[in-house]
Amino acid sequence: MDVSSPFVNRTTEMNRLQSGLGPESNAQMYTVSGPSGFGKSALLDEFASTCESENIPVIRYEIGNPDTVQVFLQRLLEEWEAEFPNSVREKIKSEVSPSTIKSISSASSILDPSGGVGSAVLGTTLAKLFNTDDDITETIDPIHFVLDVIRKESENHDQIVLIIDQYDVGGLNENRKKKFNSAFQEISRDLPDNVTWYIGSSRHIPNEPENILRVGLSELDDHATEELVQKHGFSVEDDVIGEVYNRTRGHPFILNKLLTLADNTGLKNILNDSPLNRPELINYLEDSLLNELTVEEEQLLRDSCVLRELRPHILSEMTDRSQAKVRQLLAGLHQRAIVKRREEAGEWVYRCHDLQRDYILDNESSREKRKNRMNAARAFLIHGGEFWNNTQMSESGRETQDYTLYLGHMMNFDFQLEKITDTHDIGFCIDQILSNVNSIEKEQAINAIEHYYSTNLSYESNLDTDAILGVIL
Predict the structure, then answer these.
(1) Are 197 and 188 in contact, with CB atoms under 8 Å apart?
(2) Are 301 and 360 in contact (CB under 8 A)?
(3) Among the residues of 84-137, which ranges form H helices?
(4) What is the pLDDT of residue 104?
(5) How far apart are CA 378 and CA 383, in angstroms?
(6) CA 188, CA 329: separation in Å to the nearest integer?
(7) In the chain, where are the structural domains located?
(8) Which stretches make up the MalT-like winged helix domain (predicted)?
(9) How far apart are CA 73 and CA 92, in angstroms?
(10) Average model confidence (pLDDT) for the chain?
(11) CB atoms < 10 A from the CB of 15, how many?
(12) Helix ranges restricted to H, 266-391
């Protein structure tokens, strides 16, 4: 059962996206928003294909649940460098002294022949330059740096399109949300006229300046419903179309799942067997998904329902499965289009559709959800401690990359810990998390917690940092 929503009958919305191209465009940034399952990604996919067919360069990045603005921009620049080779590296060389570049990248074994920044260390170099907590004098403002890179490359093209999809704004705490909203607003004000950003998100950016326009997706009408029924190979009898529309109310994801299920048993049979009202229909369709899974696959999705992104090393730690087994299960789910995946830093990152994830989450008991969040917090902390320990080893060849990974894991730890402390004392939660780790992992975890919550790294946290430090010190 495909996790994507269909692209169908979005001519009006497509025209609005295309109006952002060219010198006469009304805005340099668009938010493509709508409820989960309304086909935002499908629309952006179709738009990207249209741009590429017209030889317009497209840089696409699935932001997901971002760690920080700095980490997001670092990864975006890595995608930019892949599309426009040397553009980011040349900008670093023009901004930063050779001695600083050498000191940053000396921990890595691969440099380009000229002694500059090699592609293998681009991400770690950016992480060091963007991180004001590090002890280097030539840190640079990431937003200004990104804009400078974009301006320089834009001189070589008539038009450039950037697509930032899967912006999980609902998964961010208020402090982090404000930081990202502010960053998008600042970028939108200074983009060149021939560069346009499109952000796929469940919500619009609040207090948008005039140069950020909204493209909202609504339900499919009865004509679009008929078109989708035809695409699945079913006859378009009036009574059937009306019945399908009345059941789904034009919700693209629900409609697609209903028709996909009907591929096996027939459309009329599904209409006879399925509930009439939409909430019950959604439950019926979600149950049908679970019925397609093996016992192990279903349990993996239940164990991981507290996560928006599924990473094999975290799931392995959470569920006591080997990483090889987790990868095997996720690969099988992806092959049958039950989860999506993207590559990030050489690793496959998977995700359920939000509607499927929320259905599983809503049907888990409070006790199971709390247990899963505790396991997730422990997994992120163990690996965060490991990466922090690596940064303290001078012989480590991946010091800066490990620091970035440490930061991301600690932010995820903080997110899960905040959810648990809604109902439990913070001291009890940390004691529980640390009780099931070995002595080496515990020492590394405590060091990671101490550094994270005693520096400005935790400024986005909603938790009582003094209380956290009081537990471990």
Answers:
(1) yes
(2) yes
(3) 87-95, 98-105, 122-130
(4) 61
(5) 9
(6) 41
(7) 11-216, 222-291, 365-473
(8) 288-362
(9) 14
(10) 82
(11) 10
(12) 267-273, 278-291, 295-303, 312-319, 323-335, 354-362, 366-391
